[in-house]
Structures
1.
Amino acid sequence: MNLDILSILTLVPLFTGITLIILPQILPKEMSSNLKKITRNICMGIALAMFAIATMIFIGTIGNVEWTNLLHGEYVLKNEQFSLISSIGVQWKVGADALSFPMIWLTAFLIPISMLVEWDAKKGHIFHPLILIMEGALLGVFVSLDLFVFYVFWELTLIPMFLLILLWGGEDRKYAAMKFFIYTFTASVFMLIGILIMYFHTTPLPGIGSMTGHHFDLVQMSIQGNFMPNEGLRHFVWILLLIGFATKMPSVPVHTWLPDAHVQAPTAGSMLLAGVMLKMGAYGFLRVAVTIFPESTIIFIPLLVFLGMASLVYGAWVCMGQTNLKRMVAYSSVSHMGLIFLGIATMQPLGFAGALFMMFAHGIISPLLFAVAGSFKHHYHTLEIGSMRGIAHHSPFLSGHMMLGWMASLGLPLMAGFVAEVAILIAFWLSFGWLVMLPTLTLVITATYYLTSMQRTIFESDNPHQGILPDSLHGDKPRDVTWHENTGMFILGIFTIIFGIFPFIFWDMMSVWSTEFMTEIMIDAMQNNNIWRPSLGWILEAFK
Amino acid sequence: MSSLSDISIELLIPEIMMIIGILAMIIMPNLGDAKIRIPLTNTSIPVLIGGTRFNQVNNPYIPSIIAIFTFSLSFIVSLVMIQGETNGNVGEIMEINQFTNLFSLIFTSTLLITSIATFYVMPPRKDPKIPKNSDSIDSVSTKINILMNNRRQVDFYILLSMVGLGMCLMSKSTHLFLLFVSLELASLSSYVLVGFYKEKDIGGEAGTKYFIVGSVASAVGIYGMSLLYLWNGDLQINSLSNSWSSMEILDPMAGIGMGLMLVAFGFKVGAAPFHLATPDAYSGASSPIAGLLATASKAMGFVAIMKILFIVTLPEEGTEAYWMIAIVIISVITMTWGNFAALTSDNPKRMLAYSSVAHAGYMLAAIAAIGSGLGTQNSNILIITAVIFHLTILVLFKLGAFLVLSLLEKEGLSHNMDGLKGLARRDSTIAVSMFIFMLSLAGIPPLSGFLSKLLMINGIVNISAGTGSLSSATILNWASSVNIIFWLAISIVINSAISLFYYLRIGLIMFFEEPVSSKPLEKSIYLRITIIICAIFTILFGIGPLSEILLEIVNEAAQSLV
């Protein structure tokens, strides 16, 4: 077994987390109580180490990777793959490219911050290891290039998140956890059926799949091109995969689990759910459905536009009517995820890169929003918009973070979200012309609900020296954020601005991936299959 | 003719161990201080049997210790035999090869787990006090009571060993007569085991029902066997196989005989429409016994079916077997009926029983695919591998699920979903294990249930999907031209999706409902150990090197069958 750095990145948090949960049950009482005291420090140490490794991979210290120089569809840091169940063609094969690496870095970045924000969570000796397990599972999704392992990690992410909601959630946590589990699990079963149909069409590779003659190797599937001869079946599989991924993203009409899960989840759970787990859907869609079935993607562009538009407009519209802060932020996530579908549907390098950057930027901004909302819940015991006014008097830091986060999320220039939105909208205009008015106008709605909610919570007090405190405080003195919450939000805010001013840090590799890899696949698919959609014809000309 | 000296004893060591175990269990509780006085002298000679039982053998756990010891020895011997690829013939009626070795392993491991799990299930009665006046009628009856006391353990474990003996012999027999006799040895013992808890009405009723239906099925099978004897004049499986393949058109006598035998074996595996007694039997029996019926007994039925279908009646490549359509229909009905009945049942035991009916349907579908004659020798071996692999790992998660119910049975809660409510809060380890079993039954990766289901579907799809014309433009054109076998794969997938509902329901009940009682679960350490072992191996055989090793062994077994 020759483990490389990506396997270490995945397996170390996973096994450390599991060990830290099991060990106190086995050890004698005294030792286990000592262990419980330092558990969170161990977890934070591991998480920081993983973040350091991810950053070093990015800079090039490890592996010596030049991310903008990757050849067509190349993966870096590939391991010498070894088989897990060679008779049915399952192997441990990991790799990263410009699509997955920003997500890997984002996961490694968010995990220590979410631990920091919930630094004194109750039952921390289980809470922090669970987040470590979560990190392992999430990284496993992003690094694995074998569909079986991908699916296993995909399901594995459910378990820690499910437990986080069930054990540390709000009053309605049972309902939310159950809904979360049922929705995502059922959807992933559709995805599994799609994966199996793909599996049965693969041709044998030397050495693996000795018994069944098939394999789960994602890279081989995309190299083999149209390995499924039947066009109708390809579309069918694409739809099955879309159901699985769109539910995770989530897109209208399968988004209803998200607001409930977010409202009930603990802060760290919300941050990871919005920051990384939603991106799993978009990542899987790009990695599996779009890469392997480009011509189905082209055929279904109208569907993608419809889904994206519906999520964007509906999500934003519903946000205006929300009175719960977290629910509002959750619906705004739905809305922003719609933009990703729109970016993919443009079939433009700029649109793809915009969608990738949207995934990344939303992955930094939305944890900030949920951290702010979580602090409100923590210090003011309520999430009702309008039950308090002028909080800026009492919690200046919290209000500052809220303002920064809200502004970033509504797409203020010089913030990370702006880059992504502008890229997607320009690409959309290039592809679909004046249809761009709808998403653009939606941005106005976005600004409306963000500004309204901000105005009604941190500003607009009738007293110039004091705010109106919510009833849920029961006359207690209002507090500002604790040091660890403050630090976490501060880091997130800083990075929002850094990636807004210097987007090229990750934008370069994303745009290279989109132009050199994705667009070529799309052009090939259009030419090979003679798909000449009138609306897309001139785009094809533009590519040449 | 073979004589006794031809028989190589070393091939039958697991069976011989079980016989020794049975003898030990019979003798042990009868050891006492009885003496015979030599006439005209005062010298007494101890005869050891009879009288007041020795204290050393009065321990009610002795039979179970003997049983565990015997089964673990025969388990190890089977392992060694698999390792050494032992093969050979015993006379003309038994053949030992990898296939039989693997099935001895399956049977002995099931029985080992069952006997460990039942270690504390039957508490001994308290010794009644003997009245002082030793001549009174009370005193006599109490003495009889003491003598009879703790015999139930002996009976139980003797019956259990009988089941094991019958099963092991049955898998080795190459003569239909021996096959049937050993099958009946195992079956009759299991009927008694089902009705063993006579304190409860439901146990007696279930045992009686199972016995009646089972004997009718056996009678039908024996009738079929006699027709076969009339047709061929010999019940050797090889000789039957020769006559069958030399037959140009189907001889009615042979066909009917074979069909009637299939009815008898169909009852054993719980195939529809012969499955109707199964849920009653499973819910009436104590949970470990129900688990035994759902795993080892089912495996036994499948061994018989595979022997007569694949050795005797399998046609040459490219021709369809006579029984193909029948098995296709039976399998689809079985899995659909099983799943829909399981969806609506509120008794976890009945639910598991119906789910085991559904699993029988999946395996029959794989068997039907072999009968279609579409596949080559190699692809047939793959499908058989899938079936045997499923039977092997079923021991882990099916039996494991029944053992979890057995833990609840002590509180009287195993007959209702209420008992599972809030299990996660009462005992998280057990609840997680149960959830693993359920997911494995549903076939979720990376658990072993997925692996076997994938292999089955893969086998079916590989041989049948090519039959549809590739040039067809739409999916509908292709669908209409594909062989009927392909739709079996589709029906397995659809049925698995349906089955998710009731398997996940158990998970939801365990994790979300409020528990009925707040008491912690009973600490029966042996039961817990077996449950956790089952759960761990359910995962280990699903992914990683262990699954690879097991698949290799199973593949060898499948090769030695065909």
Note: The mean pLDDT of chain B is 86.
2.
Amino acid sequence: MAIEVRIPTILRTHTGGNKTVEGSGATLSALVDDLDSKHPGLKNRLVTEEGKLHRFVNVYVNDEDVRFTGALDTQVKDGDSVTILPAVAGG
Amino acid sequence: MLRIDRATYDAIVAHAREDHPDEACGVVAGPEGSDRPERFIPMLNAARSPTFYEFDSGDLLRLYRDMDDRDEVPVVIYHSHTATEAHPSRTDIGLAAEPEAHYVLVSTREHGPQTGLVGDDVEFRSFRIVDGEVSEEEVEVVESYLFGHTPTTVVYD
């Protein structure tokens, strides 16, 4: 078992075009590190230099926006489904 | 070039007028790979602002789930500018995350009913935004996808 992660179109350049990838970790932060080791550059697209999630990237664990569940500290486990979606926003 | 049917074009303009002076936003989904904007989906502007728009995060997830289930992609992503021209702003360019979408900008700055201006122009323009580069494209409005083409034979009886 692993954690399934859905990758949006714009980040598929990091995953060889794959729409979903698998990773592991006990927290979202650890999962992102694991993903970055297999798909270099992915972390930079999700996490700022200060170590926070980018304001305009939405991450959901089992349909729950992680902004409301502890952001990168959100706990994850095998069998969870993670979805990454860039915000649709502008001025 | 963006080809869009009359009903969808009108629906986007109507949504922009309705939400003026706040920015209106939404998507027209279509089958993956078709480049045909077929399913009009007006979205709520969670920012409720005259200078910013953002899909609500829960709505965004439902929208993408729904499109995935139907093998659709966001063919058009539209929003309105209510005081400036229908051209992507710096923020629009910085946040554009769908390189394959047509970014439609509608400007309601001169539309009649709410602004009280004499003219009633609503600008409607379409752009590609890829890696921070904006290119404007032509917009062709067809009466409908089914009947938008010149028939090769017309038979009268």
Note: Chain A is about 20% helix and 25% strand.
